[in-house]
Design brief:
The protein is mostly helical and 166 residues long. It has five helices and four strands. β1 and β2 form a beta hairpin.
Length: 166
């Protein structure tokens, strides 16, 4: 009898010997299959399963979010056309309000794609106002619309992605 433990082989790569197991399902995994987490190594299947727990958005959330965010961003862009310098103060507040409206409409469900779609929707909502200033040749209007777009989308992104400012 030998005191050495039996050699394990990776569940996904049967030719690869390993001494490592997934700390959730106990499946033998090699270094190619192991994903390092804060609590140890896990197999890719367990990591995917855990990520699905956090992806709670439904199919209806995407179009609802797009409509609400683009409409509110457009409303803010319309106001920014009249406020010029005060756009600097309006835009971050508008981004926060739009983020809260987006959370309300989606009932706080989440998805990586959902908050990225919110940014696209915000840009789409602002484009008609930016284009109108561009067509009129109004340089200051273009600048203030650009300032609004940048500050509002930055604030929206940070609020929806979970990073809190201030």
């Amino acid at each position: 009898m030998s005191d050495q433990p039996e050699t394990m082989y990776c569940a996904n790569h049967p030719q690869t010997p390993t001494g490592l197991r997934c700390n959730r399902c106990e499946k033998p995994i090699c270094t190619k299959c192991a994903v390092r987490t804060p609590i140890g190594y896990r197999c890719k299947e367990c990591v995917r399963g855990q990520q699905k727990v956090f992806e709670t958005a439904t199919g209806l959330d995407y179009p609802l979010l797009f409509i609400i965010v683009s409409a509110l961003a457009g409303l803010g862009a319309f106001a920014a056309g009249f406020l010029s310098f005060f756009t600097i103060f309006l835009a971050p507040v508008a981004g926060g309000i739009i983020a809260e409206a987006a959370r309300f409409v989606t009932r706080r469900r989440r998805s990586k794609l959902l908050f990225r779609l919110a940014i696209v929707a915000a840009v789409v909502g602002c484009l008609p106002f930016l284009a109108s200033h561009l067509l009129m040749g109004d340089m200051f209007g273009i600048i203030w619309q650009g300032v609004y777009l940048f500050l509002m989308t930055s604030s929206l992104y940070y609020r929806l992605s979970g990073i809190k400012i201030g």
